[in-house]
User: Fold this.
Amino acid sequence: MSTPVTLPFPRSALRWLANLIEDLDPVPTSKHARESFSQRLLRLRKAKGFTQHQLADASGISQRMIAHYETRAVRPPANAVPALAQALGATMEELLGIERLRTQPPTVTNLRLWRRFQKLEQLPPTARKAVLKVLDAYLAQHDQTLARKAG
Assistant:
């Protein structure tokens, strides 16, 4: 079960955020209009390589509510925005679509590989260098094999 995240946001800040969310346009008006909150949340979660359960654990919001926000929610509840933004490594403005994302998350086609690279980043520097050295050697060997086949 998810553990609730205690955030240092006063009630007045949450009321302000709730009013800001209420003023957002929930329905894109054209083909090129910005994405909805649900679409943005889903994209950011996948770009981070999280499953719904992992995002639930990181944010303290239940997996069931994450699924609801990604599929049916027109607007997020104000108290969920800070926890989701923090878990996704984004600002609240980016999560709400008020501000463009600082960097576009990479398009990930193989989430299993992406998660392994995320774990690799958490290794101590010496262990990470050793793994990358082995990976570089393998990739160089693969490039040579391709060059021989092509030439």
